[in-house]
Please model this.
Amino acid sequence: MRYCRVCGESTVLQGRHTIATTAMVVALEERVMSETFVVVGGDAAGMAAASKAKRDDPELDLVVFEKGEWVSYGACGLPYYIKGEIQSLEELVSVTPEEFREERDIDLRTGHEVVSIDPDERTVTAERVDGASTAGRDESTETAKHGDTVTQPYDHLLLATGAEATEPPIEGVDREWVYTLGSMSDGKELREYVARAREEGDLQQPDRGPACQFLEDCRGPVGVVGGGYIGIEMAEALAANDFEVHLFQRNDRLLPVFSEATSEQVADHLREQDVVVHLDSAVETLAGTDGDNGDEIGAVVTADDRVPVDMVLLGTGVRPRTALAEAAGIERGPTGAIATDAYRETSVDDIYAAGDCAEATHVVTGEPVYIPLALTANRHGRAIGQTVAGTPTEGGGVAGTAAIKAFEVEAARTGIIDHEEAREAGFDPVSKTITAKSRAGYYPEGGEVTITLTADRDSERVLGASLVSEYGEGAVHRSHAIVGAVTEGTTVSALENYDLAYAPPFNTTWDPVLVAAKVLSGSLD
Ligand SMILES: Cc1cc2nc3c(=O)[nH]c(=O)nc-3n(C[C@H](O)[C@H](O)[C@H](O)COP(=O)(O)OP(=O)(O)OC[C@H]3O[C@@H](n4cnc5c(N)ncnc54)[C@H](O)[C@@H]3O)c2cc1C
Model:
């Protein structure tokens, strides 16, 4: 929040000081003109904030510290880069460092890690990072040396430090050929692994014993640990490169934040694509070659199984990067991520946090949640940029809306689907699952969409939904209407009367969303 430096009161500038005397306004403007907005982290949240603040208030000094060499990149595209559908990491970058510096007038310092914040002095200290190579995007990091430090004053500070991929607390995660996928460099390493395997061309491997038993021709086998978004996207990326893929999930279903119907359809489809899905299979050890002890990964071991593998990808979740904030005395919320108010300001004045390092507020429960996704990072970053530039802006809540493609199936979810979670939030949940045609029956193409819609029995409020269809048959785009209903607190009968677009190539007269609402509404009656 911008505070008045003339009288010292914590009143936003657009408040009553807009009626201050001319002299005060001039003094105020002079102070504002020299203000510095410092951003830590140069990806979605950080660069959205920096760009918006600079656009709205060109007089602001913008300094962005990014410890890596990449900025404004789409990590979401990494599985498709590893798969081979995207040819270079550069294609994942929306705006280059040069464009930020030259066209947007942002002082972007890549290869700089912020190591401490002093909220009393209003400064951050950054160290230049050794080895922030220029292999990627940014020439300015070439001479970076560890140990060079810089102290930067700020008037406003944004922590957009993101999250890091977690490793499960099991033996063997540090063996060679065990990967996580959280950064551009992880993506590069994985792509190199796939490319090497393809070059070696080791498609027939008859002497592998139990390995490659499920496919006639295969590479690997490889293990993917975790049946969430990244695990499933990577299973597809690896299978598309002819690896025999074993997917290990400790729960009894994949994608546990979706409905059971969605989980089942996705698991069935993965099996059709020759991915070996191991449910109820918590991984106990990543054993080495050489009598289990070698440095290289040799097998994934669960309570019931031991699957020989050449490589393992861990897709077991992320953890918000909060160490910097904690050391500065900034509070974390109940989820462990950085707590913020509606303007994304932290417990320390003029320090904001957004994106994967911070909490957000759930639109249904009003409670803090940690759901690290790209749109939230962009949206909250942009709102902070606007606030810092003088227009206090709330970033809005989150509904936990997410989408995934698994080979030829697409799925989306939004809101609260899980009955236990709904009950904990004080609702009496009722769900109905329907399957309906995705396009008019007489239209030459088409398939089916399955929707599980959940509502509160008493208020009839739409709480959430999970949708699944063949890829291209509209589960994801259909979810958007339900996101609106969830966000606005609409009742099921109101959703039933939504005036959705209809034409035979896109849906039936009663779109599957309306069918789901009708069926659920009937059961509430
Ligand atoms: C493989 C993969 C697939 C994904 N797919 C999807 C998807 O399909 N849909 C979706 O919504 N989301 C997806 N996500 C999540 C999405 O990428 C994140 O939500 C988004 O990138 C968060 O942006 P952010 O700016 O908060 O954090 P990040 O993108 O993590 O950026 C944080 C930046 O801060 C830098 N940094 C950290 N600490 C410091 C420091 N002390 N000093 C200087 N710099 C620092 C880091 O180097 C990093 O560049 C995916 C993520 C991954 C890894």
